[in-house]
Amino acid sequence: MATSSAWKLDDHPKLPKGKTIALIVLDGWGESAPDQYNCIHNAPTPAMDSLKHGAPDTWTLIKAHGTAVGLPTEDDMGNSEVGHNALGAGRIFAQGAKLCDKALASGKIFDGEGFKYVSESFEKSTLHLVGLLSDGGVHSRIDQLQLLIKGSAERGAKRIRVHILTDGRDVLDGSSVGFVETLEADLATLRENGVDAQIASGGGRMYVTLDRYENDWEVVKRGWDAQVLGEAPHKFKNAVEAVKTLRKEPGANDQYLPPFVIVDDSGKAVGPIVDGDAVVTFNFRADRMVMHAKALEYEDFDKFDRVRFPKIRYAGMLQYDGELKLPSRYLVSPPEIDRTSGEYLAHNGVRTFACSETVKFGHVTFFWNGNRSGYFNEKLEEYVEIPSDSGISFNVQPKMKALEIGEKARDAILSGKFDQVRVNIPNGDMVGHTGDIEATVVACEAADLAVKMIFDAIEQVKGIYVVTADHGNAEDMVKRDKSGKPALDKEGKLQILTSHTLKPVPIAIGGPGLSQGVRFRKDLETPGLANVAATVMNLHGFVAPDDYEPTLIEVVE
Ligand SMILES: O=C(O)[C@H](O)COP(=O)(O)O
Ligand SMILES: [Mn+2]
Ligand SMILES: [Mn+2]
């Protein structure tokens, strides 16, 4: 790869090149006051705890939510997509949620190519809307769906079918019923106004449709069967009844509801996707839409038997993979995350190893590189994916593949073949999302053991470590009232928090290779995840580009 002058980074005036840097992202690892719902505090985490002694010079907290990561408001919790984008790109980009809000508020969404394309089906065929039904704001938002439905009806959609995926992961478990009721009320109003609008199918997000990184195609297939073929093990006359009934099944919660279809009086599915129809997937976040998009768009497809491949007009809310140009039609242009730190470092000869297990593999590669799959320079980079367990909820295996990730990172560090060894350790997040407090404690302990393994390797090669997280999760597992006390529901029960949090995340630097006098600056007002890229570039011996968010470190004599 010839390095053009545009990519050439200046040498750092004080920091040397050639140190091996371990860059560890603990997924879902925020900082919160200790109490019984703080699983990180309650787990033995000696490696992470020891870092706090370095505060404030080598341990500090940074922002991982809201506007610091390009989300619409300070009430928006962070998430992996925006978190890893910020970590890797070193700048704050207005993210999907915000871009869609703007396009909907101005009405521009309806003037774009994508909407025009799907609206050509409105006259004779059905508009299907498929996506996650909640106000979580991580993958989608119900208010955006409502505006999309309203705008489509106003622009001629006569027959609308919504295929819902219930959440309980970015929002409280059990909240699905309320969201379905809200949507049903909207659709009833439309019906009064002559639009034939109904919910057509559904299922829990983790069991139906929203898999990611090809962990389990069966998940996508279940959605396909319900949405396209109109087939599912459960049939109901309406969706509120469906969700209420299925939640009573043993072990079912919003995230894992089995697939269902809505049928008419004669038992026929009310909304299979057929030739000529329009399909809009209303999630703005990419990772959990890519597999579904491939099934909807690719003529050649061998991941499961689609039985029928309808000729549809399909558009994503956003384009989900910029490299694959998938889907080819979309309603809102995605953030253009360019000139990421990974691309710069590849142009400047930095050899990079990145690793996680399947469920987070794309986080340290695809998201890190600005929603771009593949290598920048395959001679300098190696990305290793450790297969995740599939078909389980991770409280059953809370240790996940943390130690395997630690081992791969250790081996990569000791091999001397890499300058940057980057990992995502998923446990705090993936187990935190199950709401199982005991399992989350075990998860945090396993994550810490992996961290320790990487620290030991860094010690041996006299390298540097940077440890941080993408957003909070495991540090607070209960919904709280405004005063911070656990909030009780109407029946006086605690409400377990399965979602991320608004908490800051720790960042620590250290290791024998860290130059004398390197410490965190104290002059940055609200440092956040986007400040990490410049920091890491400095530790590799480079000055970050001018438009990057400022480095977190300074070198004092
Ligand atoms: O997709 C998920 O699992 C959650 O909605 C968000 O979790 P993540 O942002 O940590 O991936
Ligand atoms: Mn995450
Ligand atoms: Mn998460």
TrEMBL record:
<feature type="domain" description="BPG-independent PGAM N-terminal">
    <location>
        <begin position="101"/>
        <end position="321"/>
    </location>
</feature>
<feature type="binding site">
    <location>
        <position position="429"/>
    </location>
    <ligand>
        <name>Mn(2+) 1</name>
    </ligand>
</feature>
<keyword id="KW-0479">Metal-binding</keyword>
<feature type="binding site">
    <location>
        <begin position="169"/>
        <end position="170"/>
    </location>
    <ligand>
        <name>substrate</name>
    </ligand>
</feature>
<comment type="subunit">
    <text>Monomer.</text>
</comment>
<comment type="pathway">
    <text>Carbohydrate degradation; glycolysis; pyruvate from D-glyceraldehyde 3-phosphate: step 3/5.</text>
</comment>
<dbReference type="InterPro" id="IPR006124">
    <property type="entry name" value="Metalloenzyme"/>
</dbReference>
<feature type="binding site">
    <location>
        <position position="500"/>
    </location>
    <ligand>
        <name>Mn(2+) 1</name>
    </ligand>
</feature>
<feature type="binding site">
    <location>
        <position position="205"/>
    </location>
    <ligand>
        <name>substrate</name>
    </ligand>
</feature>
<feature type="active site" description="Phosphoserine intermediate">
    <location>
        <position position="80"/>
    </location>
</feature>
<keyword id="KW-0413">Isomerase</keyword>
<keyword id="KW-0324">Glycolysis</keyword>
<feature type="binding site">
    <location>
        <position position="139"/>
    </location>
    <ligand>
        <name>substrate</name>
    </ligand>
</feature>
<feature type="binding site">
    <location>
        <position position="360"/>
    </location>
    <ligand>
        <name>substrate</name>
    </ligand>
</feature>
<feature type="binding site">
    <location>
        <position position="433"/>
    </location>
    <ligand>
        <name>Mn(2+) 1</name>
    </ligand>
</feature>
<dbReference type="InterPro" id="IPR017850">
    <property type="entry name" value="Alkaline_phosphatase_core_sf"/>
</dbReference>
<dbReference type="InterPro" id="IPR005995">
    <property type="entry name" value="Pgm_bpd_ind"/>
</dbReference>
<dbReference type="InterPro" id="IPR036646">
    <property type="entry name" value="PGAM_B_sf"/>
</dbReference>
<comment type="similarity">
    <text>Belongs to the BPG-independent phosphoglycerate mutase family.</text>
</comment>
<feature type="binding site">
    <location>
        <position position="470"/>
    </location>
    <ligand>
        <name>Mn(2+) 2</name>
    </ligand>
</feature>
<feature type="domain" description="Metalloenzyme">
    <location>
        <begin position="19"/>
        <end position="542"/>
    </location>
</feature>
<dbReference type="GO" id="GO:0009637">
    <property type="term" value="P:response to blue light"/>
</dbReference>
<dbReference type="GO" id="GO:0010118">
    <property type="term" value="P:stomatal movement"/>
</dbReference>
<dbReference type="Pfam" id="PF06415">
    <property type="entry name" value="iPGM_N"/>
</dbReference>
<feature type="binding site">
    <location>
        <begin position="285"/>
        <end position="288"/>
    </location>
    <ligand>
        <name>substrate</name>
    </ligand>
</feature>
<dbReference type="GO" id="GO:0010037">
    <property type="term" value="P:response to carbon dioxide"/>
</dbReference>
<feature type="binding site">
    <location>
        <position position="80"/>
    </location>
    <ligand>
        <name>Mn(2+) 2</name>
    </ligand>
</feature>
<dbReference type="GO" id="GO:0046872">
    <property type="term" value="F:metal ion binding"/>
</dbReference>
<dbReference type="InterPro" id="IPR011258">
    <property type="entry name" value="BPG-indep_PGM_N"/>
</dbReference>
<protein>
    <recommendedName>
        <fullName>phosphoglycerate mutase (2,3-diphosphoglycerate-independent)</fullName>
        <ecNumber>5.4.2.12</ecNumber>
    </recommendedName>
</protein>
<feature type="binding site">
    <location>
        <position position="212"/>
    </location>
    <ligand>
        <name>substrate</name>
    </ligand>
</feature>
<feature type="binding site">
    <location>
        <position position="471"/>
    </location>
    <ligand>
        <name>Mn(2+) 2</name>
    </ligand>
</feature>
<dbReference type="GO" id="GO:0004619">
    <property type="term" value="F:phosphoglycerate mutase activity"/>
</dbReference>
<keyword id="KW-0963">Cytoplasm</keyword>
<keyword id="KW-0464">Manganese</keyword>
<feature type="binding site">
    <location>
        <position position="27"/>
    </location>
    <ligand>
        <name>Mn(2+) 2</name>
    </ligand>
</feature>
<dbReference type="GO" id="GO:0006096">
    <property type="term" value="P:glycolytic process"/>
</dbReference>
<dbReference type="GO" id="GO:0005737">
    <property type="term" value="C:cytoplasm"/>
</dbReference>
<comment type="function">
    <text>Catalyzes the interconversion of 2-phosphoglycerate (2-PGA) and 3-phosphoglycerate (3-PGA). Required for guard cell function (e.g. blue light-, abscisic acid- (ABA), and low CO(2)-regulated stomatal movements) and fertility (e.g. pollen grains production).</text>
</comment>
<dbReference type="Pfam" id="PF01676">
    <property type="entry name" value="Metalloenzyme"/>
</dbReference>
